[in-house]
From TrEMBL:
Active-site residue list: 62 (for ompdecase activity), 64 (proton donor), 64 (for ompdecase activity), 67 (for ompdecase activity)
The protein's name: Orotidine 5'-phosphate decarboxylase
Phylogenetic lineage: Archaea, Methanobacteriati, Methanobacteriota, Methanomada group, Methanobacteria
Gene (UniProt): pyrF
GO MF, one annotated term: orotidine-5'-phosphate decarboxylase activity
Subunit and partners: Homodimer.
Length: 216
């Protein structure tokens, strides 16, 4: 997977219209976006289909899927039918639940990203003690793509060591949450950035500044 400028835009905006307005200005410098609950709960999975059709970009659906295998399969099926290229899946629910998403993704020619440790402070409360085990589980399952935190680079480095250099690691937490783009890219293949771009008065300039600050 080649992510243009190593930046994945998190489109956590309330309407498809707003997402389109942002993408009209930024799409030249991006080929991958992440769409999650904020947009899909407001506008439906059609928002995924629309963004995909309009810009031809890769769409990662951030639904942090965390249910029993039978329900995960239905969630994954609907997501890929809407046009998603990849789906972010929680690992803490266990191998069977993640495997259900992986199998469904493969059936559709799509991919999953396994979420290991999250970037917010609360991740230290319950998730952190098991996040490296989640990464190990992913390796055992043959999963290629992972999500890890840019807010704790010592932990991101450990995740990279577990999953190996050939795996693909994307990292949220850059900007508003405190992570640094270039430092994160020492361990991650691409960074996920949302508010630092779409809340800026000048999103084009905000994106360009991040691109300028990283070694591509
Ligand atoms: O651990 C995670 N942290 C995180 O921020 C896993 C995520 N998927 N995210 C998502 O990344 C979060 O939901 C948001 O869509 C994006 C980061 O956005 P921002 O902090 O750059 O605005």
């Amino acid at each position: 997977m080649e992510v243009k400028n190593k930046i994945i835009l998190a489109l956590d905006v309330p309407t498809t219209r707003k997402a389109i307005e942002i993408m009209d200005n930024l799409s030249d410098n991006l080929n991958t976006v992440k769409i999650g609950y904020p947009l899909v709960l407001a506008e439906g999975l059609e928002s995924v289909t629309r963004i995909k059709e309009e810009y031809g970009c890769r769409v990662i659906c951030d639904f942090k899927v965390a249910d029993i295998p039978a329900t995960n399969e239905k969630i994954a099926d609907a997501t890929f039918k809407a046009g998603a290229d990849a789906l972010i899946v929680h690992g803490f629910v266990g191998e069977d639940s993640a495997a259900s998403c992986l199998e469904t993704a493969t059936k559709h020619g799509g991919e999953i990203f396994l979420l290991t440790e999250m970037s917010h402070p609360g991740a230290a409360q319950f998730l952190q003690p098991v996040s490296m085990d989640i990464a190990r589980m992913g390796v055992k399952m043959g999963i290629h793509n992972y999500v890890g935190p840019s807010t704790r680079l010592d932990r991101l480095k450990k995740i990279r060591n577990i999953i190996g250099e050939d795996s693909f690691l994307i990292s949220p937490g850059v900007g508003v949450q405190g992570g640094d783009p270039q430092d994160t890219l020492e361990f991650a293949n691409a960074i996920i950035v949302g508010r630092s771009i779409y809340l800026d008065n000048d999103p084009v300039n905000a994106l360009n500044s991040i691109i300028d600050s990283i070694e591509l």
